[in-house]
Amino acid sequence: MLLERNNRSSFIQEIEDKREVEISSCFQCKKCSNGCPVNFAMEIMPHKIIHMIRLGLKDEVLKSSTMWACASCETCTTRCPNNIDIAKLMDALRQIATDSGFDTAQKDVPIFHSAFLSSIKKRGRIHELGMIGEYKLKTGDFMKDSRLGWEMFKRGKLKILPSGIRGRKEIRGIFDEAGRRKRS
Ligand code: SF4
Ligand code: SF4
What we know:
CATH class of the largest domain: Mainly Alpha
Distance between the termini: 28 Å
CATH superfamily of the largest domain: Alpha-helical ferredoxin
Number of helices: 12
Shape: globular
Number of strands: 0
Bound molecules: iron/sulfur cluster
Structural class: mainly alpha
């Protein structure tokens, strides 16, 4: 904890400089948290996450389940009087936690996140069956939700063969560019 407190400036720098999400102007009005449609599922509210980042509590922030509960609806971003892009912040926190292999509160969610992005990168759109297969292989939990999966399959909601989009090359370019920025 003491080490993290001493490193507070590096955490906020990582968020603001490297991930390009400006949070310093937050004055803790809570409009973001009050309008969030999934705040009931968050262990720490979005405005508190910002406060904790400013205090340098990196471990506590990355261990929380808040960013994994976020549905990226952008209500918070729209409501913020200081134009702080909280949805982008949540995305940055997901990425930092994933990159650092952080032991998050909800272990399977980062695996799902990674399988989702991998599916998009390959085809430009989700192939649900392939994505679920990758997720199940990584979690080793093959039986969970199997009945639901079967019901979806019977109703034609899970296609066997994947389909792609025309702009696959451009989508891969976006991922490559994001990778380059992450490394720089
Ligand atoms: S709405 Fe904006 S200023 Fe208010 S607490 Fe949230 S991030 Fe901070
Ligand atoms: S983007 Fe995430 S944190 Fe913001 S309101 Fe939507 S669910 Fe809540």
